[in-house]
Design brief:
The complex is a heterodimer. Chain A is an all-beta fold. Helices cover about 0% and strands about 50% of the residues of chain A. In chain A, strands 2, 4, 5, 6, 9, 10 and 11 form a seven-stranded mixed beta sheet that branches. Chain A has a four-stranded antiparallel beta sheet with strand order 1-3-8-7, with no helix packed on it. In chain A, a hairpin with a 5-residue loop joins strand 4 and strand 5. In chain A, about 40% of the residues are buried. By secondary structure, chain B is mostly beta strands. Chain B is elongated and about 50 Å long. The N and C termini of chain B lie far apart (about 40 Å). Classes of the chains: A mainly beta, B mainly beta. The interface between A and B is medium-sized, with 30 and 25 residues.
Chain lengths: ~110, ~110
């Protein structure tokens, strides 16, 4: 099946630990994005990448890091510097072709700090 | 950056009613999408509609790019339509895709 796969679906982390969320896509999309959603709130952009080996900070990048070593993969690391990491994390990808750029989302990862 | 506002923030309707959700954006955009977030959190693509009108079953959308707004119409609402509806926009510049910016969402509750 073509699509965006996020894993794991649920993740528990102890305070002070780093944790990496996986996002893989087989849609051959150039751009990938990470968003954070808090309960009852909208989506806020953490990081995005338009091409391999390049990425830009979004609105709330502090305490997070990413890499884009392969076109199909865009992992997000939540570091111990992130003060309030408990949230729902959504990964998206979109093609970059002329003016067309429809984005598609994975099913999300719910991270809880215990 | 582009500002995106959605209205109303909350909407409660009886099953069978019709509704109109609005999305206003502060600058010209190349792309606009409508999503439905289901109770499990997944974002479902409804429409990719940078301009014009599209219809898909009971749902339709219209974007008037020159006036910087988009409308999502839901007719004959069903309980499965409940959830949060988001619009999102971005621009395509010489550097490629700019970031996709989301509105604050409209929470729709359909009562049986």
């Amino acid at each position: 099946d073509g699509g965006i796969t996020q894993s794991p679906k649920y993740l528990f982390r102890k305070e002070g630990q780093n944790v990496t969320l996986s996002c893989e896509q087989n849609l051959n999309h150039d751009a990938m994005y990470w968003y954070r959603q808090d309960p009852g709130q909208g989506l806020r952009l953490i990081y995005y990448s338009q091409i391999v080996n390049d990425f830009q900070k979004g609105d709330i990048a502090e305490g997070y890091s990413v890499s884009r070593e392969k076109k199909e993969s865009f992992p997000l690391t939540v570091t111990s510097a992130q003060k309030n990491p408990t949230a729902f994390y959504l990964c998206a990808s979109s093609i970059v072709s002329g003016g067309y750029t429809e984005a598609f989302f994975g099913q999300g990862t719910r991270l809880t700090v215990v | 950056g582009i500002q995106v506002e959605q209205s109303p923030p909350d909407l409660i309707l009886q099953e069978g009613a019709n509704s109109t959700l609005r999305c206003n954006f502060s600058d010209s955009v190349n792309n606009l999408q409508w999503f439905h977030q289901n109770p499990w959190g997944q974002l479902i693509n409804l429409f990719y509609i940078p301009s014009g009108t599209k219809q898909n079953g009971r749902l339709s959308a219209t974007t008037v790019a020159t006036e910087r707004y988009s409308l999502l119409y839901i007719s004959s609402s069903q309980t499965t339509d409940s959830g949060v509806y988001f619009c999102a926009v971005n621009r395509v510049s010489n550097f490629g895709n700019e970031k996709l910016t989301f509105g604050t969402g409209t929470r729709l509750t359909i009562i049986p």
